[in-house]
Amino acid sequence: QVQLVESGGGLVQPGGSLRLSCAASGSIFRLNGMGWYRQAPGKQRELVAAITSAGRTNYADSVKGRFTISRDNTKNTVYLQMNSLKPEDTAAYYCNALSSPYFNWGQGTQVTVSS
After folding, report:
1. Cα separation, 29 vs 3, whole angstroms
2. Each residue of 69-90: pLDDT tens digit?
3. Alpha carbon distance, N-terminus to C-terminus of the chain
4. Alpha-carbon distance 70 to 5, whole Å?
5. How do residues 4-38 score in pLDDT, each as one tens digit?
6. Residue pair 71/57 in contact by the 8 Å Cβ criterion
7. How confident is the model at residue 100, as a pLDDT?
8. CB-side exposure of 78: number of CA atoms within 13 Å?
9. Dihedral Cα 91, 115, 23, 42, nearest 10 deg
10. In this structure, are residues 4 and 96 in contact, taking their beta carbons and an 8 Å threshold?
11. Coil, helix or strand for 11?
């Protein structure tokens, strides 16, 4: 069973940047499309960035042009570079497969954008 560990979150001022990492155990990771999801308090979890096993990417309109997803299959890791952060980006961020069967959800990493 693949385990996911997210890291890189923190407190940042509006306009700042963060780079999130998601390390996956297990080589099956490279066969899956992967996504970064986020969940703000009182809201449903949403997919904000996706990357296929071939490296094709797609983004939610709310983050397009500001976030960049990438992956390094040699390290079983997915990244999310977040620039020009806004207060509305505040949420817990998680990575997981793009479709069922999903891996077990990790603990997530908290991103707080505030002055």
Report:
1. 10
2. 999 988 999 999 999 999 999 9
3. 40
4. 16
5. 999 999 999 999 999 999 999 876 677 789 999 99
6. no
7. 84
8. 32
9. -10
10. yes
11. strand
Closest CA to 35 of 66, 74, 6, 65: 6
* 39-63 confidence digits (pLDDT tens): 999 999 999 999 998 899 999 999 9
Within 8 A by CB and 6+ apart from 65, the residues are: none
Instruction: Name the nearest CA neighbour of 113 among 18, 46, 48, 35.
Output: 18
Single-letter residue type at 31: L
Instruction: Flag whether pLDDT at 101 surpasses 90.
Output: no
- Secondary structure (H, E, C), 30-67: HHCCEEEEEECCCCCCEEEEEECCCCCEEECCCCCCCE
Going across the sheet that includes 18-24, the strands are 4-7, 18-24, 77-82, 67-72
The token pair at 11 is 């407190």
pLDDT at residue 27, as a whole number: 65
